[in-house]
Every structure is written in C-alpha cells, then in structure tokens.
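Blackboard transcription, Thursday session:
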Amino acid sequence: MVSIQSIPSTPSSLTHIDLQWIVKHREDRCTLCGKCTSVCPREAIYLTYRRQRMPKLDILRKQRGSEYRTFTGVRQRMAKANRCIGCGMCASVCPNEAIAPVPNGNDARVRMMQNEKGEAATRGGRRNVRYSLLDKVMFNRISMLTDPALDAGRHEFELNTLLGRVLAPDEYLRRKLAGEWIPPVREIFPFVIGSMSFGALSPNMWLGLLQGVAYCNEVLGIPVVMATGEGGCPPWVLKSPYLKYIILQIASGYFGWDEIIRAIPEMQCEPAAIEIKYGQGAKPGDGGLLMWFKVSKLIARLRGVPEGVDLPSPPVHQTLYSIEESVMKMIQSLSMAWGFKVPVYPKISASTSAKAVLNNLVRNPYASALLIDGVDGGTGAAYNVSMDATGHPIASCLRDCYLDLAKQGKQNEIPIFAAGGVGKNGNVTQNGMALIMMGASGVHIGKYIMQSAAGCLGSERNRCNVCNIGICPKGITSQNPKLYRRLDPDKVAERVADTFMAIRTEMKKIMAPLGRSQSLPIGMSDAIGIEDADAAKRLNIKYIC
Amino acid sequence: MSPTDNKKDSTTVKGLNSEGQRISSKDFEDLVQAAAKESQNLVLETYGQHNVGGRLMPASGPYNINLTGPVGQRLGCMGQPGTTIVTEGPASDDVGYLNIGADIIVKGDATNGVCNAMAQGKVMIKGSIGSRGLTMTKWNPDYERPELWVLGSVGDTFAEFNCGGTGIVCGFDAKNPDNVLGYRPCVGMVGGIIYYRGKTDDTYSRTSVKRRAR
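(Written on the board underneath:)
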C-alpha cells in the first residue's frame, strides 16, 4: 500500500474513464503522421513517447529480467479544458483508421466538474435528449378506394405556404374596392432556414447558405427563405437582389440595425419579412450571447460595437413593458420602416403563455404571423441548464394555439410557424409535415440544415456542442479563418439545394397518399395518428396501435 | 431637376381629420411622406401619432420638422441623416429609437427609453428623462458617435448595454438633483462615454465602466 500523499489526486482529478469521450488509439496502425493532433479543436490529444517495460519470463531459469522499448503514439489529455468532445475530426483525417473517440459507457464524472471558478456550464447545440415525439406521428388517412390517391412522381403539387396576414374574402374585397391598405403576404416554401446570426455562423457558412437559397429560388423554383438571426446582414447582401430571400431579425440587442436602416435607400428589393425575436426555444427568457472571441473586425462593424467584447443581449426588449405594447409598438415601427409592405411577425419561445401572445396578434391589424420555437430548438451559446430544462415542447403549444385560432374562425388568417427539434433524428420532412398537419403553416429548421448542408457534428449525446467557443471543427460556427477555410461555400450551397430537393420529394410522397395536392395540408389533423395514447389525447389527434 | 426645385417653403400636416378625429399613425405617415415630396420644411400638428419623422431619405433632404401637438411614442424612429426634428413640448417614450442620423430636439421632458438602440445623430432634451435612456446604443466607427444631451437628470438604468454612445447629463434644474444618473447606470456597457455634473448614488456598474478623473 502506498501512502495517500504519493497519489496525485485532487477533488477534481480526472482520468480518461471520467471523460465523456475516450480516444481509442491503435499503436499497430498509427503511422505517426500527426494529422490527428493538429486537427483536434480542443488539443485533446498529443503525440508522445513512453518507456514501456517488456517483461521477460524465462521459466527454465530462475533469473528474471526485463527489457524496455519506447512507445510512440497518441495519448489523451485529462484537463477539463482539453476534454475530448467526440467530434471525430481525428478519425476523419487519419490515413490508417488508427484513432477515434468512443462514447464512454461509464459514468462521465466530468459533468460534475464543469463549474470551475464558479462558472456554470455553457455550450452550443440543443437539449441533450434524443427522443422526439414528432418521430412517432404517422400519416394514416390513406386514399385508396374512397378517393383516388395521387402519383407523387407525376402529378403537380402546390407545396408552398403563405407568410403574412390573409384577409377574409369579404374584407379583402372591401379594402380592394375602397383602395385601402392590404397586408403584405409572401408565398414561400414551408421549410424555412431558421434564424442563425451572422456572428454565430462563419462567413463561409453564411455565403454557402445564401448561395444555396438563391439557387433553390432561381433555378429549382423552390421559394426557400432564410432568416438572419440577430446581428444584421453584410451591406452587400442588403443592397443585393438576394435580400428578398432573407428574413431580417430584430432582437433585444438591436445589433446590426443601424446598417440595415442605412441601406434602406439603396435596397433593390424588400426583405422577405421581419422577425421580431422575443424568445427562443433553446433558452427561453435568456438573451443572445456572442462571446468576445467571435466579435471579429467584420462582426464588430456589422453590429456597431467595439471589437473583442462579449455581447450579451438582454432577455427582454428594454423599451417594452406589456404584451400589448410589445406587439403594437414593435410591429408598427418595423412595418413602417418599409412602408407597411413587408410582413412583420414575432418569434416567441413555446410556453404556456403563447396563446396570450397569439390572441394579441389576432387583434393587431399589422401582425403577419407568429413563430413559436419549442424546447428542442438549437442555439449557438446558452447555459446548459436553460437548454436542457427550460422551455416547452412545440407540439402541444402549437396545437393549443391552432385550435384556439380555429375556435375563433381565424385559422386561415394568422399563420403560425413552428420550430424546435424539426429533423432532430433526421426525419425532417416527416417532423415538419406532422407539425403542419397539427396546424403550422410552415416550420423553421436550423440545426438540421447545419447538419445536412455543412456536416455539423453536434448531437444530443453531447457530441461536439462547442459552437459557443468558436472552435467549430467543421468551420460552421467559427470566426477563425483557419477553421472556416475548411468549409467550402460552394459545397454548402450544393447541399442546401440537395436538401430542399429531397424535402420537396418527400412532401409529395406524404401528400400523395392522402389525396392532397392543391394546397398544403395545414391543420389536416384527421390524417395523422400517434402510437401514444396520452399524446393523442393531449394533441386531439387519433391514437393508433 | 434638383430636389429643391418647385417645392413649397413649408407644408403643414394635421394629426386630426376634418371631423376632429385622430388619424392613425400609419395614415399620418403616408401624409408626411406625401408632404415631404412637396417641401423640406414640415410643420406636423401631431395628435399622439407614433414613429413620426423617420423614413425621410437623405437624398431628397435635408428636412426640418417642427412638431406642435402632443407627441406619440418613438419620435424620430429610424431617423435618417439630414433630418432635424424639433418639438415644442415634452415627448413620450423611445425618442430617437434606432435613429441613424437625425437630430432631435425636445423642448421639454422625455419619458423612458430615449435613444434606445440609436447609432448616430444627436438627441437634445431641454428637461429631464425617464429610465433606460441611451440603452443598447451602437456606434459604427465610419460615422460620428451618437450623442444624448440632457439638461436635467436621467432616470434609472441609464446607458445599459451602451456600445458607443456619448451621454452628457448637465444636472441643471434636475428632476432628481440628489441622483442625476439614476440607480444602476452603465450595466453591461461596452463602449462610449458618459459626462455628468451633479450628485449620484454611486451605483454604476464597476465591472463595465471606469470612472475617469475630472
């Protein structure tokens, strides 16, 4: 027994079985090229050599001896700052399959240590729960003999949705004849690229998304729009014809709006819409947080702030004191900026109070829509506790709101858009169409598009999830040129187009068996069922088993 | 044709219609936009209309605007460079909201949220202001810093999240002479300077700002 003093152990000492990811290295395959250690975003591994004893047992002689050899290879660091995040970049650059991180099946004690210096754990990503209720929804009202089913490959389908307030026919006619103002409405593809800010995303990612969206619109005829998130938009985009594919967001930090307003006289077209962010599903009641190392010269200029400072946005808009005031004041100011010709809608986090907001919008003549973001929405930076435990799932919140509108006979007037966890396990079209049939006019996808179009490695097993510290191994959420050079904008654009073409096909494959082709099946809840009796009852849809 | 040709010296826009009813802010804005095509000097007899004085584009300016009636919220909202707005009486919330260059003069007090998210231009208040003045203010180094001049005192949580605005609080005939900067000013402030004269309660955020010698 050795004395306790000789063991280098402190309360926060960790070994590799305490970490969430364990790097498996095979000495027999390693060529010592060093690519893995140079690509590792956390410097979690290092090249090293060790003296290794080679026991020599000669059973016929009484003497025993030992020989030593030198082990040269890769070892994992144990410091929390260098803990492996499981991104697997080492495996992707290894020429010989000699290294890869594997999830630790043991208890990852590191979780108890992520509060050093009193700082609570922060990360990027979304709620670390892999389950998705939306995955369990099935489309089961199949038209066979009752009414003819359609051919997804041959028939024409109307897949687009409307963003904007749709007046009742009599009111529309009255206003048209009287020459009165008619609210602006956009016809868009129901899968919208959700708000991710220019500060959060790298320039290459942003350019790739924009190129892809332009291609979808101009070549493929899929009217995809993307939202910017807070933090503005580069002036060249504001003054370009691509602005019409962009939903500009205004949030509580008001970052980037001076550049937007300055560009108004030179704009060639109007933006697709204006999104007023009051909350987001990943961190309800908490503001945006752009860390100082992401505030590069370009970002500082766009946001009108000094370089290299932390940029927290307050949880609330500072000059708004009530729902009535928030809705009226902000929607009116932002509508007025473009002469009431651009749809303006609020984005809120799903919550038990969502209906109160919605009812205010119904009574507001300028409100164009409502976007509700559920607890499974992603974010670039938030406290772990906000992401994992604060919020409300999207399905029941959306359903309550939609049924409330239906009760008032207003369900076709104010569109509700849903977000938060759409495509979490890869079933993006199925998830989105399930929400549409529960009453959404469309859905926003953020994390999914990062995964699908740019190869984001983040997962709900807490893989990667380091968007907040600017070391994105794929160069998606970093402002460091060494990292974002890894991301080719042309390839991102190609993948954006691939993604939306596939979603379009899958939408037809869902709609055709339902016998639906002339309009998006918004609120067509008789066509869905779920293998979960409690959820079926709560959502007022069929229970199937 | 230069913008000044064939224009009237001054055009008046009324906030009440011929039946004495208040015109909505949206319709009032349409009237102001139409009037701005006729003249660069506008007299606006407002009746609490919101967002007055924005969207007057610099290319057809400069514009001089005089407000004579009760002022609604967000006076000079998204004001453009080349616009000067003068109101004879006090103003309501959010004067100069998202202003990017208009000069706004209020010959009375202003309430909460003065200069919220403003990035350029000068706002001058002859009286005192309410809470949350100069908050979330921005500054792009290509342009001049935004400025807020207050002759009296300011309310609580002044200059919160200020990113580059200059504030001048003169403490003259202040509403609150014992505390001209209000409770907890400068929280989360990352840029800009505040000059003040008079007593304070010394509750400014030590983690955000440094006090300079007089």
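Lecturer's comment: Chain A touches chain B at residues 181, 252-255, 257-259, 261-262, 264-265, 301, 303-306, 309-314, 318-319, 329, 332-333, 335-337, 339-340, 366 (CB under 8 Å).
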